[in-house]
């Protein structure tokens, strides 16, 4: 399976883009009401938790923090929340990297979703979802509004 790589240039500072990607206020807008729960220390757990099939505390994605450099890098393992899995379904782990760098008066945001395991049933959905999530991130930073994607 090929790596999923997306590059967006966003009219905002790395700090503004980081805030949208990490803060509860930003993630709730980008990730449909979910927040990140983590200490952001390497080796510690990370969860995206919010409204879903298990109520307001649905764990949509979880993993382990691999690297955290504020305003520059967030890298973590990615597993789909248990409520999305069928009974006895194999867990598939991949990796997500957010990379931010200044580019003139804006920020270059690169997202890499890699280390896919062969046969991962969430690959296609991830490819479709990242375009919407990253487009929404760009819109929020630049306008303060979310896209109407429903």
From TrEMBL:
A Pfam family that the UniProt record links to this protein: AHSA1
InterPro entries: ASHA1/2-like_C (IPR013538), START-like_dom_sf (IPR023393)
SUPFAM superfamilies from the UniProt entry: Bet v1-like
Domain Activator of Hsp90 ATPase homologue 1/2-like C-terminal: start-end pairs: 13-136
Family: Belongs to the AHA1 family.
The protein's name in its UniProt record: Activator of Hsp90 ATPase homologue 1/2-like C-terminal domain-containing protein
């Amino acid at each position: 399976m090929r790596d999923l790589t997306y590059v967006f240039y966003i009219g905002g500072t790395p700090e503004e883009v980081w805030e949208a990607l990490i803060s509860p206020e930003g993630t709730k807008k980008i990730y449909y009401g979910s927040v990140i729960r983590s200490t952001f220390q390497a080796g510690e757990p990370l969860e995206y938790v919010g409204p879903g099939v298990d109520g307001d505390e649905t764990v949509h994605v979880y993993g382990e923090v691999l690297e955290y450099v504020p305003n520059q890098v967030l890298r973590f393992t990615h597993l789909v929340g248990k409520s999305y899995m069928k009974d006895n379904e194999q867990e598939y782990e991949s990796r997500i990297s957010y990379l931010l760098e200044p580019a003139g008066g804006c920020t270059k945001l690169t997202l890499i979703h890699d280390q896919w395991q062969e046969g991962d049933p969430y690959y296609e959905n991830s490819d479709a979802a990242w375009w919407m999530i990253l487009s929404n991130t760009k819109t929020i930073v630049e306008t303060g509004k979310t896209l109407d994607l429903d």
